[in-house]
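Give me the fold.
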Amino acid sequence: MSTQVHRRYNPLKNEWVLVSPQRTQRPWLGSKETSSQSYHPAYDPHCYLCPGNMRANGKINPQYADTFVFTNDFAALIPLEHPHTNNSYNTLFQTETASGECRVICFSKQHNLTLADMSEPDISKVIALWIAQIQELGQQYHWVQIFENKGESMGCSSLHPHGQVWASNFLPHTAHQETLNQATYYQQHGLPLLLAYAEQECRKQERIVCENKDWLAVVPYWATWPFETLLLPKFTVTRMPNVSLIQQQSLAQILKMLLVKYDRLFNVSFPYSMGWHGAPETSDPHHHWQLHAHFYPPLLRSASIKKFMVGYEMLAEAQRDFTAEYAAQCLRNL
């Protein structure tokens, strides 16, 4: 199977990915971007996110000691006092009002400290802040999306390591997909899809990147991006606020393990988009949901060659050039 062209099914999204292992042998004459390994100081007087500095809107950051969160100065979602729906009667031109809040989370006061560089206790502080944001915003909004875009190649507007949280009064498309597909699996099997998947990956030992007693990082069987990973709990949990203090500590441990492996793969501060998915913030029990995090890194062959989702991927379906098993082995061996 690993050397033949085949398709793999993604049960979370109800989608397929085309796997074409033979394409890794083709010569590469495409773009090779220069990897940035320039020195970054612990404090940059021109950085919008460093402690004590002025942001673009004129506000001054406090002299924070570790983590810092503030409302995004250029938010994509804004609160509405009286949200309402404006549905058109024409099914081809539908509109509805969207409201929410967007915040920025600085992981550390240090301008040059990524999550991979931070200590496990400091990563635990970031996890605690994620939980606090979900608890607060989840009281008002249906969905709270924690995410990070790391690196200039991922469109990150500031080199100071930070993430974001977007809360919305609606369920975004991907969250809606995952809700429906996890519910379908639970109805058919009586077990959360991703808990069953984690148990099978532990047995197979084919795509595991790293693990500890509570958490598992794998290149998912249906991975689309070259070195995509899925971070899963080995225990039943629907939302991050339900993760115990001890489990938060082991989460910090596996995050450190995974992100250091990423940085060592091509000896570069590895760019990626990552985000947490948990059950929607509604009163439903959501027994079918299982907390998890997606990591989508673009690097393909080296620090200077990226995977672009173009052509066939945009017009037909996702496609990758080497198997998930090979990607997992590359990361696992570091």
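Residues 35 and 153 are 10 Å apart (CA to CA).
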